[in-house]
Amino acid sequence: MRSHAEAQVDLNAISENTAAFTRRVAPAAVMAVVKADGYGHGAVPAARAALAGGAAWLGVVHVREALELRDAGIDAPVLTMMAIGADDHTEAIRRDVDVSAGTAEMVRHLASRAKEAGKTARVHLKADTGMNRGGATPADWPSVVSAALAAESDGHLKVVGLWSHFASSDDPGNPSIASQISVFRSAADYAEKAGVTPEVRHLSNTAAAIDVPEARFDLVRVGGGVFGLSTLPGGAPGWLTPAMTLKARLIQVKRVPAGSGVSYNHRYYTPRETTLGLLPLGYADGVPRALTNTRFAFARGRRWPIAGTVCMDQLVIDFGDEPVEAGEEVVLFGPGADGEPTAQEWGETLDTISYEIVTGIGPRVPRSHS
Ligand SMILES: *Cc1c(COP(=O)(O)O)cnc(C)c1O
């Protein structure tokens, strides 16, 4: 670790996790979702590692995220999953970035941008099968399909994909899963009967790719799973390895008497004379203030209390009589193999999911890739 702190990213874990999905879902293919800077792991290195592990596609949300991959020389198929009219679709189409459309208006918009780019837009039509977020409802789907067919016959657009997204695939047995699959099948059948010839139909995210084999269709969109995470109860299965380790070095160590109040508002008092260590990570770096007085600091093979309030830039750890020294490494979360806390455990403690933890690690924390 060269810096005061770092988020260490295990690229081999990303490749292996992707390879594990690739084997598991075959003959369906894997789209590695590397939105939000690769869930905080670094979009470009994560994308390369996922491609090395057998991902055939990449997924992002914004056009700018797709162009970052293209700028890095990555020429694999990339889907931009959110349809935002104001995005630079001309540039996206020019650079062979696939785009999504869930309204007839967006289809026509993309066709006109394609005309401008002098290329055919590669479009994935998005059906809303019950999440009621983006995409066309069953009532609006025929208008989207007919707009797409019209643009195809004008030569401006090719429907590459038909897709949708689950609301509750991480809640095994939730009746909405079967219902969404059935609505998706109807939407795909309708489009294909109308003359659309998609290369890929895709519905599943990580949880569904693991838990709902009947929803794999031609392609699964795996984000968290690529990084060794899942939103299923209990987290990711054992065949996945979390790729990120958040660690820092103690920058100061001191001995204090029993009864010393520690950090803002003295929300912790030392139970006895003890050794406190100062770690240069705080809530601005993505260590939530709600981790005050938890035991999520790991050093010398065991866990230690975070003593008192997590500050913006730093936190204090109570090491008792352990002879720790300034410069020593402390792990806040990692894969869990040595007993260190995991992003999954952070999420459970904080009433959120591991994804929010890893995407929340701030830009001040350097990423290192190995
Ligand atoms: C983020 C996202 C995914 C990936 O979800 P994971 O649970 O991380 O696998 C898939 N599809 C869409 C539409 C997304 O926004």
Strand/helix succession: EHEHHEHEHEHEHEHEHEEEEEEEEEEHHE
Overall pLDDT, averaged? 98
Q: Rg to the nearest angstrom?
A: 24 Å
Strand percent estimate: 15-25%
Q: Residue ranges: pLDDT <50 for 5 or more in a row?
A: none
Output the number of helix runs.
Answer: 11
If you had to describe this structure to a student in words, what would you say it looks like?
- This protein is of the alpha/beta class.
- It is built from eleven helices and 19 strands.
- The protein has helices spanning 11-25, 35-39, 43-52, 63-71, 89-94, 104-117, 141-153, 175-194, 206-211, 343-349, 354-359, and strands spanning 5-9, 29-33, 57-60, 78-80, 97-101, 121-126, 157-163, 200-204, 219-222, 244-249, 252-256, 261-262, 268-269, 274-279, 297-299, 302-304, 315-318, 329-333, 367-369.
- The chain has an eight-stranded parallel barrel, surrounded by six helices. A four-stranded mixed β-sheet has the order 18-10-1-19, with no helix packed on it. A three-stranded antiparallel β-sheet has the order 11-14-17, with no helix packed on it.
- β8, α9 and β9 form a beta-alpha-beta unit.
- α6 (104-117) runs parallel beside α7 (141-153) and α7 (141-153) packs parallel to α8 (175-194).
- It is elongated and about 80 Å long.
- Bound molecules: pyridoxal-5'-phosphate (PLP).
- Pyridoxal-5'-phosphate binds next to α9 and β9.
- Residues 33, 35, 81, 165, 205-207, 221-225, 231 line the site of pyridoxal-5'-phosphate.
